[in-house]
């Protein structure tokens, strides 16, 4: 899959998330709770897939990237655990704080995703450049070898 296809897939998914969040404001609470559960399950599946891909390509992935993924997974687990614990309380003030915390986390996750998209763009462009360099060097080596015959 071309790097531009990866970025298009990412842009499409971001647009789907934007549309879904805009639509849920009009949903009934039960429907919204189901959407939240489905989104959480999808996020967990994606995290597991990412973890599996990282494990499969451990030889090619830097230890720092693996550490970033592990740290991200731990952070998500801590935030979700904290939010779930607060959800159990019924005090109006606590509910307001929980809503504030959930909104702040959503904002942070959006900022992080935006940064990841910017990083993905850089990585994709750098990969294309690296491939061009490799092909050029290969052609030069072939040409240099061909002129000596």
SSE arrangement:
Layout: H1 3-24, H2 29-56, H3 63-87, H4 92-147
Q: Would you kindly provide a written description of the structure presented here, covering whatever features stand out?
A:
With 149 residues, the protein is mainly alpha-helical. Among the domains are: 48-88; 106-149. It contains four helices and no strands. The protein has helices spanning 3-24, 29-56, 63-87, 92-147. Helix 1 (3-24) packs antiparallel against helix 4. The radius of gyration is 22 Å and the shape is elongated.
Please name the defining characteristics of this protein:
mainly alpha, 88% helix, elongated
Brief summary:
The chain is mostly helical and 149 residues long. Helix content is 88%, strand content 0%. Helix 2 (29-56) runs antiparallel to helix 3 (63-87) and helix 3 (63-87) runs antiparallel to helix 4.
Biggest sheet record: none
Give me the number of helical elements.
Answer: 4
Structure summary, number of beta strands: 0
Rg value? 22 Å
Written as H for each helix and E for each strand, in order along the chain, the element string is HHHH
Mean pLDDT: 80
- Euclidean distance between termini CA atoms: 38 Å
Residues in helices, as a percent range: over 70%
Shape: elongated
Residue fraction in strands: under 5%
- Going by helix content, strand content and strand pairing, the class is mainly alpha
List segments where confidence is low: pLDDT < 50 over at least 5 consecutive residues.
none
């Amino acid at each position: 899959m071309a790097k531009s296809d990866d970025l298009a897939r990412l842009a499409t998914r971001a647009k789907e998330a934007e549309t879904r969040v805009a639509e849920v404001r009009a949903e009934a609470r039960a429907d919204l709770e189901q959407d939240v559960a489905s989104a959480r399950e999808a996020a967990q599946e994606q995290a597991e897939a990412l973890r599996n891909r990282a494990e499969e390509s451990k030889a090619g992935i830097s230890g720092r990237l693996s550490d970033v993924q592990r740290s991200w997974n731990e952070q998500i687990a801590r935030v979700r655990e904290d939010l779930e614990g607060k959800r159990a309380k019924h005090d109006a003030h606590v509910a307001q704080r929980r809503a504030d915390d959930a909104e702040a986390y959503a904002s942070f996750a959006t900022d992080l995703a935006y940064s990841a998209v910017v990083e993905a763009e850089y990585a994709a462009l750098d990969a294309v450049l690296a491939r061009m360099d490799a092909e050029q060097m290969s052609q030069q080596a072939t040409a240099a070898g061909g002129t000596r015959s």
